[in-house]
Amino acid sequence: MTAVEVITPSYNKGKYISGAIKSVLQQTFTDWNYTIIENSTDTTTRSLVHSFIDPRITIIDEDIPEELRRSEYMTAVLLNRYMPQMKGDLIFYLSDDDMFMNNCFSICVDFMRVHQEAQVGYFSMIDTREDANGYFNQISERQVSSKWPVGSNMDCMLDGGEVFFRRSVLDTIEQPYFVTDLPNAAHCDGLFLNKISSKFAFYPVPPVLLTHRRTRLSTWVKA
Q: How, if at all, do strands 120-130 and 99-100 pair?
């Protein structure tokens, strides 16, 4: 069993996903597996994803009927399908347009080794937005410092990408993990985190370990 497992649903973000994949490949901690669920309709994105060759990367191709995309939030559908199969000690989710800092895994693994009582951790992140010229400008830096107790309302409080948890957490929460209806797409992460929070506290890992990129393609209903 690997120490870290990461999952990314990929959809038509060829301009950005290489940054996400490289942020995993460049980790100083190397005991990881990375599952990319490629469901793009854009062949350029699919080709780009498949150009990354590493034995620790598994690429799963999904061809989704267009009528299903119009009725369900496919990121949630795919996470429900593949997240239960993950077997790493620690589970991370990475959006196809976000990027981990290169010491993310090492810091989180060390934190969980020291804090054996912790089941869920969350770290600081930089929030950026793409401008009309394709440049990313920092909006804010979200610093974490306090523990969120069991029962906290996490919806709209954290981004799913700044949370990681022990694999055993998945065995304690009901499936499906994520809501798939389009009206709730914007709250998909938050409702999943609420399920976890109903049973576990969220422990702070203070360093900035994620760059959250709000791109011109970051539309919930198309992700």
A: unpaired
Single-letter residue type at 64: I
Mean pLDDT of the chain: 93
**Amino acid identity, position 188:** C
pTM, to two decimals: 0.93
With a CB cutoff of 8 Å and minimum separation 6, the contacts of 104 are 23, 27, 92, 123, 209, 210
Per-residue pLDDT tens for 42-83?
999 999 999 999 999 999 999 999 888 899 999 999 999 999
Domains belonging to the chain, first-starting first, are 4-222 (3.90.550.10)
Q: What are phi and psi of 81, to 5 degrees?
A: -75, -40
Distance CA 222, CA 37 (A): 15
Relative to beta strand 99-100, strand 57-61 is unpaired
